[in-house]
Amino acid sequence: MKRTPEPELMQIPSQVRAYADADFSKSDSMVVKSLEKYLKKVGRTLNQGDLILDMACGPGNIAERIAKNWPLVNVTGIDGSMEMLNEAEDKLSKNHTKNLSYELIEINSIATGEIHFPFKADVLVSNSALHHFHDPCRFWGALKKLGKTNCIHIHRDLIRPTSLEKAFELKEKHLSNSPEILQKDFFASLKASFTVDEVTQQLFNAGLSELEVFQVDELYFEIIGCI
Ligand SMILES: C[S@@+](CC[C@H](N)C(=O)[O-])C[C@H]1O[C@@H](n2cnc3c(N)ncnc32)[C@H](O)[C@@H]1O
To answer: How far apart are CA 187 and CA 91, in angstroms?
Structure first.
């Protein structure tokens, strides 16, 4: 199936609300688990003052989990949608997670150099972010600018199904009990996402081929490594 990009930023209030209200806890926890597993595998620890950036953090579910799991580390969630960050800030004001903050930044602007983010990250994570980019080179370009040498990467995203029928089948299987707007968004995201082969090529083109990309299940791939 040919890729059909969707709008980059999620700004429509009803769409943002449905996304923020949805329970993605199973998938969200995978980012934390993958980072824990990778740190153990390479024998690294995160230290006080280290910085983890959650790229395209949306309503902050994952950034919040990470901040709670590594309370001495600074965690910043970056997103270009004020509507999404309002949801994230709202939760933050209730949970008082001290080592967590958010920045309203359109990520393409980091890649092009229009915006200079003043800090470099020890860890870069993202979930369901890459498929939003009309030009995926921009996503990888921004990450290259944001990471310190030996920065750890954990990125997770949907895999584009082989056909519209398969995409429909996956939507029915995984989201049939969800609100219609969420189902519609999920279907659009499946059509906008990349295949593992395409991501492998993107990483090669970006000079990031030391990162490993692999299929996790019928919906997701992960990219893990240190560069
Ligand atoms: C599907 S949501 C994922 C949110 C979060 N990572 C999660 O897993 O819950 C995608 C997010 O990417 C953000 N986004 C898309 N393109 C972006 C860009 N160019 N710059 C900054 N944020 C972007 C959207 O606004 C949205 O919040």
So the answer is: 27
Is 103 in a helix, a strand, or coil?
strand
List pLDDT tens digits, range 163-200.
999 999 999 999 999 999 999 999 999 999 999 999 99
> 71 — phi, psi (to 5°)?
-65, -15
Phi, psi at residue 3, to the nearest 5°? Answer: -70, 135
φ/ψ (deg, to 5) at 221: -115, 160
61 lines ligand 1 (CB under 6 A): yes
- Identify the pLDDT of residue 65: 97
How many other CB atoms are there within 10 angstroms of residue 116's CB atom?
Answer: 8
Q: How far is the CA of 125 from the centre of ligand 1 (A)?
A: 12
The letter for the amino acid at 69 is: N
Ligand 1 neighbourhood includes 132 CB (under 6 angstroms): yes
According to DSSP, the residues that pair with 156 across neighbouring strands are 127, 222
DSSP 159: B
Chain centroid offset of residue 53 CA: 10
pLDDT at 40 over 90: yes
Q: What domains can be seen in the chain, in order of their start residue?
A: 25-161+195-226 (3.40.50.150)
Stated pTM of the model: 0.97
Half-sphere exposure of 97 (CA within 13 A, CB side): 28
